[in-house]
TrEMBL record:
CDD domains: YfiH. It catalyses: inosine + phosphate = alpha-D-ribose 1-phosphate + hypoxanthine; adenosine + H2O + H(+) = inosine + NH4(+); adenosine + phosphate = alpha-D-ribose 1-phosphate + adenine; S-methyl-5'-thioadenosine + phosphate = 5-(methylsulfanyl)-alpha-D-ribose 1-phosphate + adenine. It comes from Candidatus Glassbacteria bacterium RIFCSPLOWO2_12_FULL_58_11. GO terms for molecular function: copper ion binding; hydrolase activity; S-methyl-5-thioadenosine phosphorylase activity. Belongs to the purine nucleoside phosphorylase YfiH/LACC1 family. The keyword Repeat does not apply. This is Purine nucleoside phosphorylase. Keywords: Hydrolase, Metal-binding, Transferase, Zinc.
C-alpha cells in the first residue's frame, strides 16, 4: 500500500493506491540515511522536474480553514493562513509540513480534485477534515461518498500522550473512541478520530486508508516533534497535486 520511492533529488513515501493512472503526484518526504531528508528547495526542484508549474505552500496555524489552490489567496507573495488546500487544475502542487501531526490526503477520481490537510489535535477538534469536504463540494460539486482518504505517517496511539483537558476537548468534539486513559493522562490516536469525522460526513469506511507508519516508532525514517524536539528545523514535507 505504501512504498519508499527515490530519485536523484530525494526520498519520499508514496501511497500506491493512487498510481500513475490517476495523474496524482503525492508523497511524504523520508529521511535520507544519516540525513534530514529533503529541504523545501529540493521538494520544489522535485516538483519542477515532474512538470508542476506552481507550488502552493500554506502558512499553517492549527486551524480549520481550507483554501483553494486556484483562488486569489496567493497574490502578493504571502501564503494564506490555513491548514488545508484543495485543487483540481493540473500542474499545481500543494505543500505542507508535518512532524507528528497527520498529513491528510484526499482525492476524488471523477473530477480529479484533491486536497491536502495538516491535522493535529487542534485541527481535529476544529474540524479541518469536514471543512475540506465542504470546500470540495463548493469547488467541484464533489459528493463525500466518492472521496478517498489517505492518512499519512503521524504519531500513533501508543506514542501520543496528552493531558486530560485536551482529551476532554477531543471527546466533546469527536468521540472517546480514539482515546485511552492512562492514570492522569491519555493516549490519543488522531488517525482513529479522523475516520469518525469522515464517516459522519458521508465518506465510505472502505475509502479511508491509514499509513502503517508512526513518526515516533519509525524515527529512523520520519521526523517526530515528540521524539526529537526542534520542530522548526526537523519536519517532513507532504505534497499532493495532479499533472
Ligand atoms: Zn508510535
Amino acid at each position: 500500500m505504501e512504498k519508499i520511492t527515490e530519485n536523484e533529488t530525494g526520498r519520499w513515501l508514496r501511497f500506491e493506491n493512487w498510481d500513475a493512472e490517476s495523474g496524482l503526484f503525492q508523497g511524504v518526504t523520508v529521511k535520507s540515511p544519516g540525513g534530514w531528508g529533503m529541504s523545501e528547495e529540493q521538494v520544489r526542484e522535485l516538483a519542477d522536474g515532474k512538470g508542476f508549474s506552481t507550488v502552493r505552500r500554506l502558512r499553517q496555524v492549527h486551524g480549520s480553514r481550507v483554501v483553494s489552490a486556484e483562488e486569489g489567496h496567493w497574490s502578493g507573495g504571502n501564503p494564506p493562513e490555513a491548514d488545508g488546500i484543495i485543487g483540481s487544475l493540473p500542474g499545481v502542487l500543494g505543500l505542507i509540513t508535518v512532524a507528528d501531526c497527520v498529513p491528510v490526503f484526499l482525492f476524488e477520481r471523477g473530477s480529479g480534485s484533491w486536497g491536502l490537510l495538516h491535522a493535529g489535535w487542534r485541527g481535529v477538534e476544529s474540524g479541518v477534515l469536514t471543512e475540506s469536504l465542504n470546500a470540495l463540494r463548493a469547488l467541484k460539486g464533489c459528493s463525500a461518498e466518492n472521496v478517498e482518504f489517505y492518512l499519512g505517517p503521524a504519531i500513533c496511539g501508543n506514542c501520543y500522550e496528552i493531558g486530560p483537558e485536551v482529551a476532554q476537548r477531543l471527546i466533546r468534539a469527536v468521540s472517546a473512541e480514539g482515546l485511552r486513559p492512562a492514570g492522569e493522562k491519555y493516549y490519543a490516536d488522531l488517525r482513529r478520530l479522523l475516520p469518525i469525522q469522515a464517516e459522519a460526513s458521508g465518506v465510505k469506511a472502505g475509502n479511508i486508508f491509514t499509513s502503517a507508519y508512526c513518526t515516533r516508532c519509525h524515527n529512523e525514517l520520519f521526523h517526530s516533534w515528540r521524539a526529537e524536539g526542534q520542530p522548526a528545523l526537523r519536519r517532513m514535507w507532504a505534497f499532493l497535486g495532479r499533472l
